Amino acid sequence: MSAATVFGLCGAALAGLGLYGLIVNPQPLRKIVAFNLLGSGVFIIFGIVARRGAAAGFGADPVPQALVITGMVVAFSATALAVALLLRLFQTAGSVTLDADSPANMGTDSVDA
Amino acid sequence: MSLALDIVTITAVSAGAFFFLAGTVGLLRFPDTLTRLHALTKADNVGLGLVVLGLLPQAGSLRGGFKLICVWLLVLAAGATVSQLIARAALASGASGQQGHSTVRAAGDEGPPT
Amino acid sequence: MTAALGFILAMLALGLIRVLRGPDDADRMMAAQLIGTGGIAALLLLGVVTGVPATVDVALTVALLATFASIAFVKKGGVNAPESPESR
Amino acid sequence: MTIASALEMALAAVVLGMAMWTIVARETFAAAVGFVVYGLLLALVWVRLDAVDVALTEAAIGGGLSGVLLLGAAARLRASETRAAAERPGGIMRLGAAALSATVAAAFGASVLLLPDAAPTLAPAAAANAVATGLGNPVTNVLMAFRATDTLLEKVVLLLALVGVWSLAPDRLWGGYPGARHQADPLGTLAFLARLLPPVGIVVGIYVVWAGANYPGGAFPGGTILAAMWLLVIMAGLTDTPTISSRRLRLVLIAGPGVFLVVGLGGLCVGTAFLAYPVAYAKPLIIAIEIAMTLTIAATLGLLVAGAPERSAGR
Q1: Within the 51-90 window of chain A, which residues sit less than 8 Å (CB to CB) from chain D?
Q2: A15: which of A41, A79, B81, D203 fits an S-S bond (Cβ 3.0–4.6 Å)?
């Protein structure tokens, strides 16, 4: 197996793991982390597309590489925005649950857990 | 000449790898936070230093070698300072009534190892 | 050279165990720092093995930023801080 | 199986293990530490894939800034953790999620294995047109010339995200200082590091930007390094974040997209199309844009990590 295949499968598995974490983890911050995992898995798949496109003396096709760099920066800014939203939610509600029925989301702060 | 340089590289890189081994084993086996930190800093400073030393003959250009040394100096300066900070943070948490940290508090009297 | 690279990667994997086991956050952070340093060494070796000199620049970046995360850890009072939202 | 491919498999396994840990770890803080390590390991993967530019960006953003952001948030949200953990979905839900994720991963994996053998590539096209810009780094060529619109829009996205973060501040704090004021001992260890490291870091950052013209590097990793150094000084308490109403700050924030737009519109007037660089001036123009962008990226990323305003400007 070539490096591209090994890391490509790794990227696919990362995307799956990220998706699983995104669905299963109840804490929003963990969901954000999982989303980043999912994203990085997709980036790696882009990376192996770049690697397989090595030609003209370049070790990897520069176009997917540039796309990945752009994507990473955008992913970071989205993460920062999500984290800021979360901190603000915590400030106002005193809790960060996404469960609509939770008492914390109705304005009262109880210790039912 | 080139053979001699290669021998230098192999020796130094192997020695560096050995220190990484020592640091990792220490990190895994030592009983508490501060002793683990002690093990870690050896890998940081000496291990990486030896690897850098070993790679210097292979650097090819003066600039490449200079950058290698820069990397090591950066890790030295930053790693030593951060180890201090982590040790203090660990001590602070140990002093605030954490269980199983009495050894940490005792060791702290001599100052955190770096 | 490749063997040394593999060896250091194996050490990295071992260091991960400490990240997993903890028990303190400080232990995790220390392990992360060791992995950072090991990663730098691996990058330097990888640069020589693959003959891509710019890898040293990556190592330089890691050297600058790996410590940065540790500092954030210390600043945020991460070591099993008492269970209270930080006063800010 | 050669040693090299065994190494690759080992690296992939370690990366996967770390990813697994960030998903299953009990404490969020531990998961955040795991994510920092994961970022470092990914940088290794990118080097292995011969994408050093991406490795630089990943090391700077994934290992550095994201780590700081997530560690900080995890520490502040620690108190809310126990309750949220109780909401873990039931067995059927988890089984379903696992099945769905496995399907998605398998689909990705299959598509990786089924990629056409003669891989489509734009590398020859990028190489053939590299003469036009006079830059030696193909990735910079793509980012700054061939796909410049993407990069321009991405700057706008960064700014929008920052505006979004700022607009989360309560009304009375609008125009205030982002983030908490960091108190620090001016003679302490951290302050020492914050005096020692930034000069080196700034040189490295500028070097990375400068090298980006011909070797791996560029405005993104360079700007990220500068942002990290700025944040270090802030975290050490040696300086404060600027108020978000500061005119100078806002000028820096729009410098990058501004210069980019001006050059782009100039291309529309002088040349043939939006963002068409006149061939004779392509290199100096691109470098001017890169420098302006580096400043903007450094300021924007730094402020994104600092967060929403938390103290009013009046103090």
Answers
A1: 51-63, 65-70, 72-74, 76-81, 83-88, 90
A2: A41
- What is the C-alpha to C-alpha distance for residues D225 and D212, in angstroms, rounded to an integer? 14
The answer to whether the CB of A78 falls within 8 A of the CB of A38 is no
**What's the CATH number for A3-94?**
1.10.287.3510
pLDDT at A102: 52
Q: Which residues contact D244 (CB under 8 A, 6 or more apart)?
A: D166, D174, D175, D176, D177, D178, D303, D309
Are D268 and D222 in contact, with CB atoms under 8 Å apart? no
Question: Residue A99 pLDDT more than 70?
Answer: no
Return the residue in D16, D29, D182, D234 with the most chain C beta carbons within 10 A, the one to mutate for interface testing: D29
Report if pTM > 0.90.
no
Q: What is the pLDDT of residues B21-73, one digit of tens each?
A: 777 777 777 777 777 777 777 777 788 888 888 887 777 777 778 888 888 88
Q: What ipTM was assigned to the predicted interfaces of this complex?
A: 0.81
Residue A52: closest C-alpha in chain D: D119
pLDDT of D187: 63
Residue B16, domain extent: 2-108
With an 8 Å Cβ cutoff, are A8 and D105 in contact? no
Report the C-alpha gap between C57 and C62 in whole angstroms. Answer: 9
